[in-house]
């Protein structure tokens, strides 16, 4: 039991908390909208392959999309209804993405078509991973990496520790906090399932000291024979980044360019763990998730259980509408979230929050010259020199950025957050990394052609 | 479906409150007590010298701002960041109270033009601009720069010495009254003033350098607010005290003690407000410690073994020149890699 606030990773930043808007609000279910848009691509990896066509009747929980490769995920119908179209639709990424549009059957009682789930105690590790893949699980923290891939260590590697990520270091968001408090049974079930799938000897649940009550609640509910330790770390961004959390828990750094499994660790978001637990308890695949709807721009901030595919405008209506001065709507938190242009974009598996910012919160963008104040160097959790990288990026010396370890940047935006000169550091790093990856892919192709 | 009110930008959507302009104006504001103490001890010439130096520093950036007003610039106009104002103010605090106003003005002009603009403006300069201006004045007008006014008597604070209003190129026909600073007394083997006078500033010297205590308090305030990196002044002051005390132990009659070094001359102002200038100090915390230690050693060496009574200005300018080098061998070790000592590209 370590409640000491001293335990954390090095560097990082302290943005405001802003969690009080929805902290005490229990999760409520959003009524199903009339039409849902389920994108075939809402996870990292290949898009899902649609199994339904226009006019088909689908039942809530029915498989409607098959994983389009190993790194991909299954998709299930979030409601019973009729498929109206399968084609491009607005997507939170800003692109048009192939999506299945389902018109809700108003006459249906919307009873779940449960998956055929065996008791995990009788399953082998491979069978559990298969069931998780069947249920369409991806990381619910935001990155949406397919869970079954994480649960399958590469040849010759094995996991000893499962770390459950409940840090929720993004300001404003409370979905992980509410899950710890309200879905405790599912969390504990999920931990046991994943420990068995991984063959892990011990699990850690890592959270921050603004959620000590939730940590205490979970400790009280844990079965005594389960080897799980709940750890409370300093509230600091980005405590929830995989590498930072591992550093705080095990005091070890994931080697540059390697994966947590190289330290015998697998990290899963608490929402994912609860979802897997829920699946084993009720047979429900991943068709809904907890979303914190918050910010000064929404009239009634809430924590909601939202079916995947629910349009943004439906959520806005359910929360009393936007204020007149709302200027930005973000999917995700304020540090790494994505600004939205269209009100018909759907909530996805990875949507942890919807944040409404008004004119007052829109950040100043007038750029001053770098005064070399070292705030960014002191903030960077992977110990890069963002000032130097920013200068190289501005001069478009992208190849030189490789020598300064740009590929270790995880785009947490701490540098841009602290920069007093408003230099768009992380924004330039994203561009640079994108171009460098394209270049590397082209180089590989050329090598292959020889 | 698209809402025209919605602004699409990229993350982060939160910003720390400190901006470059806010930092510069905040440092300027924190110097107000120092200016008040200087006015108390040296009288009415203090505000005039300060205004002249600030005017000299602001003019070139003002011209730049006007020239650039129609250009499509992604960056904010130079005057708005407040750095020229701060440079002028800091320069003034290093000048003797009786300096002719035109010299203070010229010093401000040189600070910004030769200290900053020629390098490419704020952020690109190698040397502390205020100290570049002071070095220029010291080279051009050595006699004036070493003529110190005695501390003002209670009744004479409103008086302004006639030396202030001399004009360039004409021989000054005003007799300056001169007094010895504590450091020159030490250099030339004369008795040095009481510690309390050094602490509060009742000794002859530059405008804003004599009140060690008030400068320390202003500096501590900025350190607490996270504006001044406390590692730099701490490293300087600790090194000066250690080296100064060490020499004093070797030969108590020949060398002044560590506490004298800390409170005399421009050390406090230099350590808290000049060396800590982010632009010209290292970009890593380890580098800041090295940088401060280098300044500390140089200050004592120049003061004790050099021909000049005071060495803070040259010590900082030397260390400024070493900053790029310090940066190169103190770059952070990337997360998940092994520490590799040596230079980075």
Overall description:
Chain A has 450 residues and is α/β, with parallel strands linked by helices. Among the domains of chain A are: 19-23 and 123-282, Rossmann fold (3-Layer(aba) Sandwich); 375-449, no CATH class. Chain A has 13 helices and 17 strands. In chain A, strands 1-14-13-17-15-16 form a 6-stranded mixed β-sheet, with helices on one face. In chain A, helix 1 packs across helix 4 (184-198), helix 3 (175-182) runs parallel beside helix 5 (212-221) and helix 10 packs across helix 13 (425-449). Chain A is globular. The termini of chain A are far apart. With 345 residues, chain B is an all-alpha fold. Chain B has a domain at 20-179. Chain B is globular and about 80 Å long. Chain B has 15 helices and no strands. In chain B, helix 6 (129-140) packs across helix 15 (312-329) and helix 10 (212-224) packs parallel to helix 13 (267-274). The interface between A and B is large, with 74 and 47 residues.
Order of helices and strands of chain A, N to C?
Answer: EEEEEEEEHHEHHEHEHEHEEHEEEHHHHH
Beta-strand content bin of chain B: under 5%
The chain-level mean pLDDT of chain B equals 86
Weakly predicted, low-confidence segments of chain A:
1-5
Residue share in β-strands of chain A: 15-25%
Structural class of chain A: alpha/beta
Let me know the largest β-sheet of chain B.
Answer: none
Mean pLDDT of chain A: 94
Distance between the termini of chain A: 58 Å
Quaternary class: heterodimer
Largest interface: A-B, 74 and 47 residues
Distance between the termini of chain B: 50 Å
Helical percentage of chain A: 25-40%
